[in-house]
Amino acid sequence: MTERLTTLKVKCPHCQGFLKDKEVELDGYESIKMDIHSGKNTGSFWISSVYGSNNYKSDIDLKKLEVLDFHCPLCEENLNTQVECYKCGAPMAQIHLSNGGMVNFCSRLGCNNNSIE
Fold this sequence. Notes:
Layout: E1 10-11, E2 20-26, E3 29-38, E4 41-48, E5 56-58, E6 69-71, E7 80-84, E8 91-97, E9 102-106, E10 114-116
Antiparallel strand pairs: 1-8, 2-3, 3-4, 3-6, 4-5, 7-8, 8-9, 9-10
């Protein structure tokens, strides 16, 4: 039996721009690209578009359990919200699904709290 994977197509909740990156693949599919701010460092951050995968890639060094500020690479608006993660207390970040709904995920590297609404 072949396992069926669900890939997410997401966009920025502010500018409605699509966040896919065809040039960087994770889990064999195009990734979702965001900019991050980590202390004094800024860089790019890619997450897998495969729902349920926790795979990511970054072009800057990050520490496990570090809290990141996520930003849209197109309009530069902050994607972090005021909602706290129920697992670790860090801010949740939010991106929108292209067909309606939203994806919420914890901004703490290593916390796997996420949801689709």
